[in-house]
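Here is one chain, start to finish.
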Amino acid sequence: ASPAGFTAVFGEEHVGADQSDYQNPTFSLSPNPAGQIVVLSNPHRTTGRILIYNLQGHLLAEDFFTCSDAEKSFSISHLPAAVYVMKVFPVDKSPTQLRFIKTAARK
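Its structure:
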């Protein structure tokens, strides 16, 4: 036993998101960090809903995307500089959670 009262065991097992998510991502955000606009990449051209939250869990924005949107732009100019969570709810896949950083306006 270790001094902390537990033993760490390391192996080949993958913990977390399915590895195929990294090889063929469903959604991504760019640029990140961003100042005025973030762009959601929708390579599989699915339809769904997007919710943007602050880290305190408050819903700040809601939007939708369609199968014709390979990319969907969102204005974030009204948000203060911080880290945000975008939850993507496609109709045909499991929800995805993405984080992005809103940078301060340059003076």
